[in-house]
Amino acid sequence: xxxxxxxLYSMREEMAKDCIGTIKKxxxxxxxxxxxxxxxxxPAVELRIVLDDLGLxxxxxxxxxxxxxxxxQRNLDYMAALGGKYVVLAYYMTENSDDxxxxxxxxxxxxxxxxxxxxxxxxxxxxHELKKENGKYLLETLLxxxxxxxxxxxxxxxxxxxxxxxxxxxxxxxxxxxxIHAKEIACxxxxxxxxxxxxxxxxxxxxxxxxxxxxxxxxVEQEEYTLTPAEECENDYNYLASIDA
Length: 245
Known about the structure:
The chain has one domain: TIM Barrel (Alpha-Beta Barrel), CATH 3.20.20.150. Helices cover 46% and strands 20% of the residues. It has helices at 12-17, 19-29, 44-54, 65-70, 72-82, 97-116, 138-146, 156-161, 166-173, 203-212, 229-242; strands at 4-7, 33-37, 57-63, 86-89, 120-124, 132-133, 136-137, 150-155, 177-182, 184-185, 193-194, 217-220.
């Protein structure tokens, strides 16, 4: 089985109370690594020791606009100390193609700095980028404007939530798709974020299509819960492991 990572936003309340203890729980679940949602107030060197001792790899981190606009180098230095590779803009409000172009221009600037230091730059979508204007999804306009050094970290839940055929969209993105945010969607009319394997997606098909276009990294994200966050995140991992994801 290839490595499966957990976006630590999935355990956000636990992370706020006890970062190190929560990361230890994630390791016990079976995950091979983590994606941060911004960095904790812990020296990077100390956090790297904890991660290495647990056998966890840092795949990257989500950042807000201000994190990348105002403190890009500080965040890149922290990422380098952890050994991460993906610099991801977590959110940008794109209501129209002009907004998408502004976001693309911003991402191009981030990538220009990040690439020189060995990182890959990605944009993480929500549903609003899957609106069409002039026959083109806003996400496509954003990525085209950003240029060849900016890729999609595709959140499949939000693609499907927007009413787009996720399987076809994965194929259409092709090599612009670098990493998948694995997040399950309940069948209509509910459409909540449920545990992986308890919703709409055919995960074997989704993973196969993703790998066909070159995706190697899958990051679980759980935003809504029926059980505790820890229980649901562990169940997500166990499901993907059971289908040899």
